[in-house]
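Our preliminary data section would be incomplete without showing what the modeling component actually yields. Below, a chain of 206 amino acids is followed by its predicted structure, encoded as tokens that our downstream tools consume directly.
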Amino acid sequence: MKLAVDQHRVSRILLDFDLTIEFDDGATVSFSEVVIDDLTVDEDNQFEGLRAFAALHGLVCEDVDYDRSGVLRMAFAGGHTVVARPRDEVESWEYCAADGSTVLCGPDGAVESWPAPEHPSTEGPTVEGLPSIGATVVRLSTGDEPAVEFSDGTKLLFDLPLDSGYLVLRESVTSSSSSEEGDEARGDWVVELSSGHVIFYRPRTV
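Predicted structure:
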């Protein structure tokens, strides 16, 4: 059985609680455990997985299918392969089309699907902004529109060095300031996280 992402280009790779491939039509495929080429990725090595998945950016998905047992196989240009198998107690993978229709592999390989919702979610997008103290980093992304996203709905639009991901994701903001006090539009931003990692950032759109 097919998913409608073949012949579509990988636009971004995202990491929050799962690793996600985003395609140029807005569709996504998320994984809790997956094998990319010869590397098995799960909760214990997600940052290594993010670096491996970053190699898919810009590539076209040449083929994708899943079988009745819930095994998902994807093939990309350049010979890269992604395989996700069912897990015993949690979801293994989830496909979400741009219209919101969904296919997922639940525990023990139970594949379920839902049509697009009649009333799509109206959740607002994150916007570039200086995060508030106490906000948590909830998502990292690399690719066409890389960003570091925070729980207060703000994001910083830059490609975080992937080796620093473990110092950033799920960390909270302990200090947040602009070099031009009282004028965020003109100054550079400095954001310090609970890990001690400091982000120096020049805003693009404020």
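The chain has a mean pLDDT of 92. The helical segments are 46-53. Preliminary results of this kind motivate Aim 1 of the renewal.
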